Amino acid sequence: MAHVKLPIGPQHPALKEPENFTITLDGERVVDVDIRIGYTHRGIEKLMETRTYTQNLYLVERICGICSYAHVENFTQNVEEILGLQIPKRAEYIRTLFLELERLHSHFLWLGVAGHEIGFDTLFMYTWQDREVVQDLLEMISGNRVNYAMNAIGGVRRDVSQEHRKKVLEGMDYLEKRAEFYKNIALNEKTILARAQNVGILKPQVALRLAAVGPTARASGISVDIRKDDPYASYLDTPFEVITTDTNDVLGRVVVRVLEIVESIKIIRYLMEHLPEGDILKKAPRKVPEGESISHTEAPRGEDFHYLHSNGTEKPERYKVRTPTLANLPATAEMLKGTYLADVPIIVAAIDPCMGCMDRVLILKNGQEKPGELISGEKLRRYGIKWYAERGWDA
Amino acid sequence: MGRIDFLLSIVYLLLFPGFLFLFAFSLFAEYLDRKIYARIQRRVGPPFLQPFADLVKLSAKEDIVPEKAEHFMFTAAPIIGLAAIFAAFLYLPIVSTTGLHSFNGDLVVVLYLLTIPTLAMFLGGWYSGNVFGQKGGMRVASLLFSYEIPFFLALLTPALLQGSWKMADITRFEAAHPLEFIVSLLGFFIGLIALQGKLERLPFDIPEAETEIVAGPLVEYSGRRLALFRLARDAEMVVGAGLIAVVFLAGPEPILPLEPVYLSWLVAALVFLLKTLFVIFLLILLKSAVARIRTDQMISFAYQWLIPLTLVQIFIAIIVRFFGGI
Amino acid sequence: MTTTEEHILEVLKGLPVERKRNHRIFLTIPREDLLKTLSILSSELAVQHLSTITARDKGNDLEILYHFLLNGVVITVKTTCPKTDPTIESIVKIFPSAILYEREIHDILGIVPTGHPDLRRLVLPDEWVGGYPLRKDWKQPAEQEAEE
Amino acid sequence: MKTPGKMLPKIMGFIFRKPVTVRYPKERLTPPATLRGKMKFHLDRCISCGLCARDCPSGACTMHEIEAKKRPVFDLDYCTFCAQCAESCPKDAIEMTAEFELAHYKKGEAIVK
Q: Which pLDDT tens digit goes with each residue over A275-323?
C-alpha cells in the first residue's frame, strides 16, 4: 500500500485552532508526522516591546483564552520581582483562587473536547454545562468570563466579598459531585476505555528526554509540578498533592485531569476558608528599573515560562513567553508515530493543545503579494493547490 | 372489479403504506432522533419540520460534481440506495399481515435490499475522486462485512423458529405464541446493535467521523445528491427498525387479544408504527450512551462477540423448535 | 536555600555564578565552551528539562539564554555571539527538546545553530522575506518600502 | 466485565426534564452587576488630564476637543472592556455599567461620549 500523505489541518474539524499535521500513512497506521505551526501568530512579544507595563497587562492576558490568567500571573510576578515589591497576603490568596478556578474551567473544557474527539458528544454537553458554574463564579468576581483583568502590578484589582465566598463554596460542592460522576465514567465506560487505553504511549524516559510538561508528563509518572517544586502566589501554605498516574497513555491524561479537578476544588475550599484580611493592592511606580527576571507557573497544560528584561523605561526591553503546548509538541510527534489514523485527533487533543498560545511571537506578513492587492478567488484557489502540490500532499 | 384492485394497489404503492408514508415517516424518525438526542443532552433540539426544511434547502443548493469524480456513478449511487430502500419497504407487512405481496422468502429479499444502500455509499465515496472520500468508502466496505452477517443471522432465527421465510407467517406465529419473544430476545438485541452498525450511527459511525477524515464518503456530495443520500439513510433507519419490529415483535399484530372489527388496517398500521418507534427509541438510547470505536475494534467486536452470540441464538432456536414441539 | 541548590552551586564552583533569589541561578560563559558546560549540567547534575531558549538583541551582539529546570530551580546559562557572526553550536544532541527552540531563535533573530538537523521556519510563514523581526533595527515591511 | 452504557441511568432521567439552554433573546439571564460592559462618562467630573487615554491598551480612548473642552471619547470598536481607564481616572469620571448588548450596524457608530 503506497504511503499516502494526508494533511490534517490547518483547517480541520478536529482542530479548534489552525495547526497542520502532515501524516504519512501506511494504510490506517501513522508512519511519520510533520507539525507546522505559526498560523495564529500575532507577534505578541514584539508588540509588548512597544507598550507600557500597564497596557501589557491586557495584551499578555490575550495570549490564550483558556489559560489567560497563568500568563498574567507570570507577567505581574516578573515585574514585581524586578521592582522588589511584596504584594499583600490577601492579594496572593485571591490570585491563587483565580489560578485554580481557571484550572477547573480549563480541565472541564478539555474533558468535553476529548469526549467530542472520540465521538462521545453527551459527555461533551454535560461537561460544558458544569463548566458554566465556574464561568459564572469568575464573571461574578472579575466582571468577565474569560479575560478577567484581575491583576494589577502590585496586587489584585477587585476584592472577594463575603457573599462571593459563600457562592464559591456552594459552586465547589456541586462541582465535587460532578467530578465524582466523571471519574466514574472515565474509569468504567467501556467505549471510552477502548479509545483511551494504551493509545498515544509516551514512556517516562521519552517524556523526560523531550521535556514534556504538565498532565502529559504527569500521566507518564513524572511528578513535576511547579506549584510544588517552585511555589508561587500562596501555594506554599495550601495543602494539596501532585497527581500522577503511570499508565503513559491517553487514559492516564484523562484520569490526571479529572483528579486535578478534585484537587483544585480542595485548594479553592482551603483558600476561601483561610482568606486573610488586609488590603489587596500596593501602588507600583510606572518605570521599572534595569534588570531581568524569570517566572514560571503551572498553567492547566503545564509549565508556562516567562522571561522579562527591563531597561529602566516604561516599556519592557524584551519579553519571552514559552507556553506549555510548545514544550509538548516534540512529545506529541513521538506519540503519534505507530498509531491509527482514527486516534490522531484524540492523541493531539490529549495534550490539550492551545495553538493560540504557542504562536505568540511574530507579526504575520504576506511576503510576496504587495499588501492591499485584491487576490481573486480563482487565484487564491490556484495558490492553495500549488502550495499543497509542492509539498506532495495528495489532497 | 380488476380496476378497483388496480387503483387500490396504486394507492397502496404510492400513498398510504408506500412511498409518501415512508418519506414522511423517515423525516419524522430523523426529527425524533435529533430531538430526543438533544433532550438527553439537556439541549432544546430542532423544531418539528426541521428535517423537511433541511431536505428542501439541500435540494435547492448548488450541486457540484468534482472534476476527478466519475460523473455517472457519482450521480447513480444515491439513487440506487434510495430505490432499494423504498422497494424493501413495500414488502413489510404494515396494513395487513401480508404486505403488498408476500411470498415464501420475502424476508430474505428485504434483507438483501437493505444492504444495497451501504454499497451505494461505498460507490459514492469511491467514485468521488477525493482521497478522504475513498478512505471513507473503504471504511464503509470493511464495516459492511462486519455487520451484515450478524444482522442476517439474528433476523433469521424467528424464521427458523416458525419454519418459514414468509414474514406473514412469522408475524401470525408470533402473535399466537407471545412467549416466543423471550426465546429470541438475544437475537433482538444483536439485531439492534447490528442495525446500529449498518446505519453507521454513533458507536459505529466511523466512515464519516467528522473529527478524523472530514465527512468520509459523503465529503464531495452537495445539493440534491446529498439530500438523496441523507433521505436514504433516514429511510434505512425506518425500514431496519420496521423489519426488527415485524420479525421480533410480531409487526402489525396487536399482542393483546382484542379483535378490531372495522378499520382493522388502520389499527394494524398504528401498532406497527408504535413498535417501530419503540425500536428507534432504543437506537437513540444506544447512540447517546457510548463513544465511537475504531475500525479495527469494531471489526473485532463484530467477529468476537456478535457472530458467536448469533450462533448461540440459532442453537437455542433449534433446541426450542425440536424439543418444544410447538 | 533548598538542598539541591547547594549541591548545584557546589558543582558549578569554578564558573561565574550569580544568584539573585532562591530557585534562580544565572551562569555567564563565553560561546566556545557552551557544549562543555551543558554536558557538565546534564552528566553531573542529571539536568534533562530544558524549559526554553531565549534570545535577545543587545545592540551590537546577540545574547542567548538557555533555561533549565531541576526540581524547581531555574538554571540559566547565558552566552553571547556577535551580530557579524551569529552562529552557536546546536545543543540538540544533549537536549533533544531544543530542536524547536533553536528553530525559533533562528527564525526570528537570525542566530544559526550549527549542526541543527532540520532548520525550517517555525513561526513565520514560508514566504516571509521581511528579515529578522525581533532585532531592534527591524522595520515593518511597509516602512521598509517607504524608505526605498 | 465493564459493560458499555454506564451513562444510561443518568440519561433516562434527563429526557423529560427542562433543557438547560436558554433561548436568548426570548429568555434572558441577568449578568452580575460587576460585569464590565459599556462605560458611562461623567463630563462634569472630568479634568481633561488624559491619564485614561494614555493607559488605554487598545487605543479606544482618545482625547478630543469638543465645545472648548479636551475630553476622552471611547470608540467601542477598539475597546476590550478592560476597565483600565476607569481605574486610571483620578476623579472617577469613568464608570463601567453592566450593559453588554452593544451590536451596531456601521463602524464608528458605537461611540461613548
A: 999 888 888 888 889 989 999 999 898 888 999 999 888 889 888 888 8
Judge whether A13 is closer than 8 Å to chain B, CB to CB. yes
Residue D29 Cα, gap to closest chain A Cα (Å):
11
Structural domain count, chain C: 1
Rounded mean pLDDT of D2-22? 76
CA distance D70 to A18: 45
- Enter the pTM of the model: 0.86
Option in A52, A58, A140 nearest D80 (CB): A58
Q: Which domain holds residue D99?
A: 30-112
* DSSP structural state of residue C45: S
Nearest to B85 by CA among B122, B124, B54, B111: B111
ipTM above 0.90, yes or no: no
pLDDT of residue A367: 36
Taking residue A35's Cβ as centre, other Cβ atoms within 10 Å add up to 17
Number of domains forming the structure of chain B: 1
Reading the block at residue B93, the C-alpha cell is 407487512
Number of domains composing chain D: 1
CA-to-CA distance for A320 and C56, rounded, in angstroms?
9
Secondary structure of residue B75 in the 3-state scheme: helix
What CATH number did the domain enclosing D45 receive? 3.30.70.3270
Quote the pLDDT of residue B49. Answer: 92
Nearest to C23 among A37, A38, A230 (CB): A230
Quote the domain boundaries for residue B231: 2-324
Percentages (nearest 5) of helix, strand, coil residues in chain C = 25, 30, 45
Domains and CATH numbers, chain A: 44-358 (1.10.645.10)
A62: left (phi over 0), alpha (psi -120 to 50) or beta: alpha
